[in-house]
Each structure stands twice: as C-alpha cells, then as structure tokens.
Amino acid sequence: MKRRSFIKNSLLTTIGIGMAGTEVLGSNVTAALEEFTLPKLPYAYDALEPFVDKMTMEIHHTKHHQAYVNNLNKALVGKEKIWNSLEDLCRKTGSLNNDVIRNNAGGHYNHSFFWEIMQPVPASRPDGNTENAINAAFGSVSQMKDAFNEIAMKRFGSGWAWLVMDEQGKLQIGSTPNQDNPIMDISPFKGKPVLALDVWEHAYYLKYQNRRKEYIDAWWNLVNWNKVAQLLR
Ligand code: MN3
Fold first, then answer.
1. pLDDT reading at 229 higher than 80
2. How confident is the model at residue 28 (pLDDT cuts 50, 70, 90)?
3. Pairing between strand 171-177 and 192-198?
4. Span from the CA of 97 to the centroid of ligand 1 (angstroms)
5. How far does the chain reach from its first CA to its final CA, in angstroms?
6. How far is the CA of 131 from the centre of ligand 1 (A)?
7. In the prediction, which pLDDT does 13 show?
8. Ligand 1 centroid vs 175 CA: distance in angstroms?
9. Average pLDDT of span 102-131
C-alpha cells in the first residue's frame, strides 16, 4: 500500500470509529431538571417607573416568572424530549397533552417575550415599516391601539392581549386565556407574536388595583418599538 492511500484509509477508519462512537440523540432522551432558566431582565426593576412600579416588576420577575420556570422544569423531568426549544415546546402543547406543561411553558414563553417588548422611557417610535404594516391592517396606529385596548379590557379573568403577524404576513389582534399563546398548536388564535400585554391582575394590581384600563394606557409608554420592528422583519 502506498503511503498516501494508507493515510487516507487510516483517516477514514478514524472518522468511521468516531461516528460510530457518537451517540445519536434518539427518542430515549429525557429532559433534565435545569432544562429552562429565568432570563435576566434587560433593565432594572425600577426602570419602568412610573408606569409599572418597581415592586410589581420585582415580584413579577423573581416570583411569578421564576415559578413558571421551576414548575415547567419539574413537570418535564423524565418526559421524552420531543422539543428542541421553548418555542417548539409551545408548538407541541397539543401532543404533550399536559395542563401543567401547557400553563408553565406558556408562562415562561409569554413573560420572556413580555420583558423584551418593553423598554424604559423615552421609548422608541414605530419605524416606517412598522407603521405601514399597522396602517394596512388597522388604518392607523391609534386605531390599532384602540382595538388592542378593547381586546385587553374584554379578556375576562387572566390572560394576554397580542399583536401577531399571521401566515399571510398581515397583523392581527387577539387574546389568549391564562398562559396560552398564539404559537401553541391548541390556540384558536395563531400567529407570530410582535407585541404582548399581560393582563393578569399580578401585572398591575399593586399600583392600579382594579383599574386595568389605566394600566393598559400607561403601558403604551413602555413599548419597545425597535423590538417590534425587528420582529416584523
Ligand atoms: Mn404575568
């Protein structure tokens, strides 16, 4: 055997052994206890004052959101890992058929999204592309806000209001109960989230008590339109 082909054959053998020795991720892979972790807030707890107060933010993030993460991790232990991300887990809610996973995966996804689409004042403004998309669907930014506010007010009990992009690329407004969201296969309202508002009482009760409308109006001052623009791209 010539030296060159000997090296080539050895190399192929090495690669072959390497591949055979690599464990292929199969259906027997199960979730670990630290599957998901609480993301850091992109700003300080008091950064959204006076519209959302520091204590609400601190409890909302360190207690409520942390509890969704903890309960989700607990519920997933030992489950066959048929998801590869939090989004994917939400999309497969139907096949998982487990209300604890549904509520806590939704809780984790929704809050992670919610922190990102807010920013301290002075907030950004919708860019040209965002405004065009909103105008095309609702007539104007102010008409979109009216429709969004109405849906957020009408959500009975706990849930979320959403601005999403549907499969045709058109903006739609809708609401989901509890911690459901528009990327869940089981949700009748579907789309890619571009804006979300938490209307659970824990999101506003300390400062606004029963005055959900005041909270909603105040919240518009915090919208991170740069993030919305990114999501629309
Ligand atoms: Mn919440």
1. yes
2. low
3. unpaired
4. 23
5. 58
6. 28
7. 38
8. 14
9. 95
The answer to whether 147 and 75 have CB atoms below 8 angstroms apart is: no
Cα(142) to ligand 1 centroid in Å equals 25
Ligand 1 centroid, distance to 212 Cα (angstroms): 14
CA of 198 to the centre of ligand 1 (A): 6
Query: Could you write out the DSSP letters of every residue in 20-59?
Result: HHSPP--TT-BB-TTS--PPPPSS-TTTTTTTS-HHHHHH
76: CA distance to ligand 1 center in Å?
21
Q: How far is the CA of 232 from the centre of ligand 1 (A)?
A: 24
Q: Give per-residue pLDDT as tens, 128-143.
A: 999 999 999 999 999 9
pTM of the model: 0.87
Superfamily of domain 53-233: Iron/manganese superoxide dismutase, C-terminal domain (3.55.40.20)
Residues 171-223: tens digit of each pLDDT: 999 999 999 999 999 999 999 999 999 999 999 999 999 999 999 999 999 99
Distance in Å, CA 3 to ligand 1 centroid: 67
